[in-house]
Amino acid sequence: MSKNNTTIITNVALMTVFIVKDNGSYMAKCPELDLVTEMDTKEDALKAMVEMIMEYAEDYKAQEDMYIHSPNRSHHKPYVDAVMNCHDEWEIMELLEVRYAHIHL
């Protein structure tokens, strides 16, 4: 009998993405950055959210003086800094805790 010495290392999730099924489409929401997208599949919704997070982080960095003085965006800086330190989409995914949810009205 052999032993497997594989070690899996995970980062602590920094942001949450909720995937919500709503009338045949899927919404992805990142409450920490106040971002929302909607797509036809849950996989596409998550991919679109990751892309949106990357684009938002780049825009935030480019206009940091404006965002840092905005009362509803200044608290995003630590999240943006973490995203900007990522080298690819995989590293951004490691920052996320993806949760599946329902909308209750």
What structural keywords apply?
single chain, 105 residues, alpha+beta, Double Stranded RNA Binding Domain, four-stranded mixed beta sheet, 4 helices
Give the arrangement of secondary structure elements.
Layout: E1 15-22, E2 25-30, E3 35-39, H1 42-62, H2 64-68, H3 77-84, H4 89-94, E4 96-101
Parallel strand pairs: 1-4
Antiparallel strand pairs: 1-2, 2-3
- In spatial order, strands of the major sheet run 3-2-1-4
CATH C-level label: Alpha Beta
Total strand segments = 4
How far from one another are the termini? 54 Å
- The value of Rg in angstroms is 16 Å
Shape: globular
Mean pLDDT level: 91
Residue fraction in strands: 15-25%
Give a description of the structure.
This protein is of the alpha+beta class. The protein has one domain (15-101): Double Stranded RNA Binding Domain (2-Layer Sandwich). It has helices at residues 42-62, 64-68, 77-84, 89-94; strands spanning 15-22, 25-30, 35-39, 96-101. A 4-stranded mixed β-sheet has the order 3-2-1-4. A hairpin with a 2-residue loop joins strand 1 (15-22) and strand 2 (25-30). Helix 1 (42-62) packs across helix 3 (77-84). The N and C termini lie far apart (54 Å).
